From TrEMBL:
PROSITE patterns (alphabetical): 2FE2S_FER_2 (PS51085), 4FE4S_FER_1 (PS00198), 4FE4S_FER_2 (PS51379), 4FE4S_HC3 (PS51839)
Domain 4Fe-4S ferredoxin-type: 139-169, 182-211
Domain 4Fe-4S His(Cys)3-ligated-type: 79-118
Source organism of this protein record: Thermodesulfitimonas autotrophica
Name of the protein in question: NAD(P)-dependent iron-only hydrogenase catalytic subunit
Keywords carried by this UniProt record: 2Fe-2S, 4Fe-4S, Iron, Iron-sulfur, Metal-binding, Oxidoreductase, Repeat
SMART domains: Fe_hyd_SSU, NADH-G_4Fe-4S_3
């Protein structure tokens, strides 16, 4: 340990502790801007966290300077305050300050810091950054470099946590820019559109594309029958925007809120998550029994699919052919649902509420028009018409003046509204695997599982592993979340080291979908954990906890699909990938 003084107060901390952390121990909150502990980002780029150290001529940055024995640190001298203020004024002087109309208005770290430091005027002027063009080349992510403060968090998360490295720091001084190498558009890079960059951006330099106007327009169109589906992760996260603790199950209120917005039917992606288990579990058993390509890789996380197509095209035969639950839902809404309700499929408009930015990309893939092909009618268009992230839905609820916490709990509509506990845990890393094991075990063995909780695949560890005996086969499974962990596994798979394994779950985002790039900001490790707990709590509380017990799934197979992997399933629920 080392002992030092902070503003005269003695404090003893383990060697290697930063001045920022040491100060926090004695109740001193040093302001920060670029620092982000969660992703290990401590480059000291912004110099807001400067402090004075006795005997040192220059200020040091508290976020990345280790405490030393006998140090005398001052965090609140006139010179320190003046330095922070000048730094902040310099950042603000060339920041595009359209705060009232900015997507991050009210939830901007730069705005909050200006308030915290009581900055009321900006004595400098510059505005050179206003010249950088906006990049709206992808369906999911919008870059607005005029709002970039060069904190470089996005670079760190993209490079270190996701190993995609689609962004880099370029140029110097007023010409400095964070963007794709070679000044390319994001759509022309290896970006997987996971949106982790948008989650860590302190301002609105990187945001989700705002598709709310498309949904308002559909809701206002009397010729449209507008249905909505809600992803597993949204059940336990939307409440955060309305002051509820992360992980609170707001399912009933979310259903009520969506009805108040005017949706004609409110359905659950959890329903098609159960369907995914039926199809993907059957696919796995088929691969095992018939000597197919193993291990099978999950296919529901669209950032992960992009990652495989970009970096491991040779391994695509391992990826399950199952579409994601979002896309299965869209295809069925415009076939099964339309048919059962006597609706014209071209009048059905499908909206998704997803924790994910990459879902916007997934929905517009050219092949995701199965309903249109099924009916032979191009007017039916995409299977999913619009994808809203959690953040966009939250904005719509605010705009509509919905008092979310005061709403009653309501139930989903019938036909595609029942989801099991197995579907709910899709939102957490390991959840798809656990859901698959609950069903695959019972189908393969014909026996009832004595214990349905597979704890080995739960939790925030980067790579998890389990072995489950099934009919004499020891089924070996792996789970990874965050693309750096996925990459570690794919390198092993490519090297032939995972031959003994049967099934691997990968979710692009740390923690799984609850940590998706479209989720409420902040999304930090603590919140990810609470949201995961929320998924398992809801799983325990539900009447059905295994996908194959979902009564609406049984009805779907009986009335429409026939059997898993059958002809209609192949038409509507399975897909292929492009190397
Ligand atoms: Fe997910 Fe999925 S779990 S991918 O994380 O398989 O986004 O929540 O909706 O499609 O069901 C996301 C979440 C989501 C799909 C399901």
């Amino acid at each position: 340990t080392v002992t030092l003084r902070i503003n005269g107060q003695p404090v003893t901390v383990p060697a290697g502790t930063t001045l920022l952390a040491a100060a926090a121990q004695v109740g001193v909150k040093i302001p920060t801007l670029c620092y982000l502990k969660d992703i290990g980002h401590d480059v000291g780029a912004c110099r807001i966290c400067v402090v004075e150290v006795a005997g040192k001529e220059d200020f040091v940055t508290a976020c990345n300077t280790p405490a030393e024995e006998g140090m005398e640190v001052y965090t609140n001298t006139p010179a320190v305050r003046a330095s922070r203020r000048m730094t902040l004024e310099m950042i603000l002087s060339d920041h595009h300050m359209d705060c009232p109309t900015c997507p991050r208005n009210g939830n901007c770290e730069l705005q909050a810091l200006a308030a915290q430091l009581n900055v009321r005027t900006v004595r400098l002027s510059g505005a050179t950054r206003a010249d950088f063009p906006r990049d709206d080349s992808t369906p999911a992510i919008i870059r607005d470099p005029r709002k970039c403060i060069l904190c470089q968090r996005c670079i760190t998360v993209c490079k270190n946590i996701q190993t995609v490295a689609a962004l880099e720091l370029q140029g110097q001084g007023f010409d400095a820019l964070v963007g794709p190498p070679g000044n390319r558009k994001l759509a022309d890079t290896l970006c997987v559109q996971c949106g982790q960059c948008a989650l860590v951006c302190p301002t609105a330099a990187i945001t989700e594309r705002d598709d709310t106007p498309l949904v308002w327009a559909a809701l206002a169109d009397p010729g449209k029958h507008v249905v909505v589906q809600t992803a597993p992760a949204t059940h336990v996260t939307i409440g955060e925007a309305f002051g509820l603790p992360p992980g609170t199950d707001i399912t009933g209120k979310m259903v009520a809120a969506l009805r108040r917005l005017g949706f004609d039917a409110v359905f659950d992606t959890n329903f098609t998550a159960d369907l995914t288990i039926m199809e993907e579990g059957s696919e796995l058993l088929k691969r095992i029994n018939e000597g197919g390509v193993l291990p099978q890789l999950t296919s529901c996380s669209p950032g992960w699919i992009n990652f495989m197509e970009h970096f491991y095209p040779d391994l695509l035969p391992h990826v399950s052919t199952c579409k994601s639950p979002q896309q299965m839902f869209g295809a069925l809404a415009k076939t099964y649902y339309a048919q059962q309700k006597g609706l014209k499929p071209e009048d059905v408009f499908v909206v998704s509420v997803m924790p994910c930015t990459a879902k916007k990309f997934e929905a517009q893939r050219p092949e995701m028009n199965a309903a249109s092909r099924y009916w032979g009618n191009p007017a039916i268009g995409r299977d999913v018409d619009v994808v809203l992230t959690s953040r966009e839905l939250i904005r719509m609820l605010r705009e509509a003046g919905i008092d979310f916490t005061a709403l009653p709990d309501e139930d989903y509509d019938e036909l595609m509204g029942v989801g099991t506990g197995a579907a709910q845990i899709f939102g957490a890393t390991g959840g798809v695997m656990e859901a698959a094991l609950r069903t695959a075990y019972e189908i393969a063995t014909g026996k009832t599982l004595a214990r349905i909780d597979f704890e080995a695949v739960r939790g925030m560890e980067g790579i998890k592993e389990a072995t489950v005996p099934m009919n004499g086969t020891k089924v070996k499974v792996l789970v990874a979340h965050g693309l750096a962990n996925a990459r570690a596994l794919m390198d092993k798979l490519r090297a032939g080291e995972l031959k003994d394994y049967h099934f691997i779950e990968v979710m692009a985002c740390p923690g799984g979908c609850i940590g998706g790039g479209g989720q409420p900001i902040p999304t930090d490790t603590g919140r990810r954990r609470s949201r995961i707990d929320g998924c398992y709590t809801r799983d325990k509380a539900l009447k059905y906890r295994k996908s194959h017990e979902n009564p609406e799934i049984k009805k779907l197979y009986q009335d429409f699909l026939g059997e898993p992997l059958g002809h209609r399933s192949h038409q509507l629920l399975h897909t292929s990938y492009r190397p």
